[in-house]
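in:
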């Protein structure tokens, strides 16, 4: 799990953008959505989430509006902006390219060097 957390620090923004791209969510809902779509393999800590949400909103990639949660409580709901959609697409392409490079490196045999 420590390796997952280290990986997560570098990809948190992308994961949040992906979660919010699936529909508007409040902060805790974003945590649950990431956990759900990772099939419980990733867990985001609240202490990491809220600064990231602030940063993403400040950059114009998400926007928020107050609403009511499932528990009838006031909650800030986040949704993806047009700029956020573009950013998610760019980050996804970059991530996939890097994953391909790393996979190629890991497949390298001594004979290929």
């Amino acid at each position: 799990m420590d390796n997952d957390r280290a990986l997560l620090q570098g990809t948190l923004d992308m994961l949040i953008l992906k979660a919010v791209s699936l529909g508007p969510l409040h902060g805790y809902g974003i945590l649950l959505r990431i956990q759900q779509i990772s099939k419980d393999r990733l867990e985001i800590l609240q202490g990491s989430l809220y600064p990231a949400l602030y940063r993403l909103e400040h950059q114009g990639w998400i926007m928020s509006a107050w609403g009511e949660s499932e528990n009838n409580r006031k909650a800030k709901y986040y949704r993806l902006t047009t700029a956020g959609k573009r950013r998610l697409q760019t980050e996804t392409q970059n991530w996939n390219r890097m994953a391909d490079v790393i996979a190629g490196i890991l497949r390298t045999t001594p004979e290929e060097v």
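note: Strands lie at 25-26, 62-68, 74-80.
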